[in-house]
Amino acid sequence: MSSLQPNLWAAEYVTFPAATIFLILRLASRRITRIHLWWDDYFAILCYVTAVAWAVMLPIWMRHGFGLHAEDVQGMTIEEANYTTKKYLFIIEHLYAFTLFFAKISILSFYWRMFRVANIQIAISILLTCSILWIIVRIQKLQLPILQKIAIIFLFLFGILVCVAGLAIVTVSTHFNNKSHDMTYQLAPVIIWASVEVNLVTISTCLPIIRPACLYMMTCTDPTTTFDSGSSAYRRNYPRSQTKHSIHLSKIPNAESSSTRVLTQLVIIQGRTI
Fold first, then answer.
1. pLDDT tens digits along 87-146
2. Which of 27, 152, 190, 195 is such that its CA lies 20 to 30 A from the CA of 244?
């Protein structure tokens, strides 16, 4: 009896624990750096909530024969198995859409807050789908060592993995026949890749934020202390340019509680994302 249920289990429960860990690291980083939660954090949490709903829904769906050939589903006729699959598909496709929506809004909110002084808010508002390109341009203008620029770009381009999963969904969807009498089996490859994508987008919302928690776990030191001690050394090695393209920290609010000030300092002075 052919079954894709092991693939479904692997796709979901390899990536979902990773998404959980990254969200915990995100929240821990906020606590360590004493930065209050903002819209990017709230939408990341909502993204994870929908991912949890997906993780709960998928095994329930599989208990009703999803991943098996319709003729192999016990206790149901082929028609009943296909009808049940369509009902679960209706529910889970809404979870999929909301997960991607929350992830995109979280990332865009993060860009909005971090690059508040970089004159790209209009670009973020109008060109939502092109926002990542604007971020890369701004990273190129940062006065950082090349390795640190590469590290920042790598974090932002983690979204490529999400795009790969999305392309895989499109590819396998072209082979799906919505009039098939074996939907319980033929739809499974689409849901496998959708499960991967749902959890990867959750990870992508947390990646730029988790550095303080990772630094704390690896060195058992307060990242804010490390930041203060490294600031003067960086300024000696990489003095700020006086060109009009530079990002001036003087435009940032001086209040210690200003999350924009802390975020921009962490990127510009240390050359690493939070």
1. 898 888 888 888 888 888 888 888 787 776 556 666 656 655 554 455 555 566 666 677
2. 152
Q: Which of 111, 117, 151, 159 has its CA nearest to residue 135?
A: 111
Give dist(CA 249, CA 267) in Å, integer: 11
Domain ranges of the chain: 5-215
**What pLDDT shows up at residue 225?**
56
183 in Cβ contact with 82 (< 8 Å): yes
Mean pLDDT throughout 33-52?
90
Whether this model's pTM surpasses 0.85: no
Task: Note the pLDDT tens digit of each residue in 156-183.
Answer: 666 677 777 877 888 887 777 777 788 8
Cβ 114 vs Cβ 241: under 8 Å: no
Q: Among 183, 152, 104, 170, which Cα is nearest to 272's?
A: 152
